[in-house]
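Our consortium's second objective concerns turning raw sequence data into structural hypotheses that experimental partners can test. To show how far this objective has progressed, the report includes one record in full. It was chosen at random from the queue rather than selected for favorable results. The single chain below, 330 residues long, was entered without modification.
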Amino acid sequence: MRRKSFSASLFTPHPSLFTGCAYCILPRVADHYDMQEILSRVKAAFIGLAVGDALGAPVEFLTAHEIKAKYGRLEEIVGGGWLRLKAGQVTDDTEMSLCVARAIVAAGGWDLQGIAGRFAAWLKTKPIDVGDTCRKGIRNYMLKGELETPFNQWDAGNGAVMRLLPVALFTMGDDALLEKYAVAQAHLTHNHPLSDAACVYFGRLVHLAVLGFSKARMRRELEGLITEYPNFRFDPYRGLSTGYVVDTMQTVFHYFFKARDFEECLVGTVNQGGDADTTGAIAGALAGAYYGMENIPKRWIRKMDRKVMEDVVTLAERLITMSPTGMKGR
């Protein structure tokens, strides 16, 4: 998909809770953009999240050397792994993202309690995989009705950012809303400054990617994150891809900015191993938003659960329609 160069007049400074935030995107940006390209990227972002989840899940917890010994280089959606997944089956990364999206769409707007309620209902189904911090936060809501888990210095995991995409799509065009809602949904389970910052900046990158901005512009956006929290610096890349949110985002940033297309980004990311379903899901969402539908390998989409694919496309379209971008009725 051709990248465009857009006028700086579409942006206005916005005072941010995080230093280094460059600009927020004004409502009515839809008047200035190719809406078919935007819709392609929005759908590709959610599909990319699910595809990255399914591609990476079989090699979760393996090292890069172990993956190489077993697969050579994992380039196909194969299933298996420690969860014994079917090929194309998704995990908690996609399932919790669907909970967020469904709650927003069902309420016709932001509904933190609705999101928490869907997390609780999902947990009661005994999902195939759920992170310990997510489980603890959801149970805190179920037992006490609390919508904010207390700060914990050990809760700097990636469980909040892995499900952030629906919030980014719903707030497209308004950085202040993105910041507010990204942190609110994060604090249901993860209350830590590193998690908060990762959520906000990942959302900003999604906004820029969907609207067609270059990787150079997206990389400049990260200067604010790295200024505030230097441990997110990813060049040189340290090669760690654990569930620690810093390691996760360094891996995603490294492979996204290094890659030439969607497949190269995803394959590189998941073959790093570690928390590969989550790094794959986050990288897939970002790469999908950047490259659009035509760049996602059809052979991967054919492997995916059809119902999941239908749901993510429908929800992505609804979320962007509800957003401040001015797409209503288009």
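The partners drew two points from this record. The domain at 19-322 is CATH 1.10.4080.10 (ADP-ribosylglycohydrolase fold). The beta strands are 11-12, 24-25. Both points have been shared with the crystallography group to help prioritize constructs.
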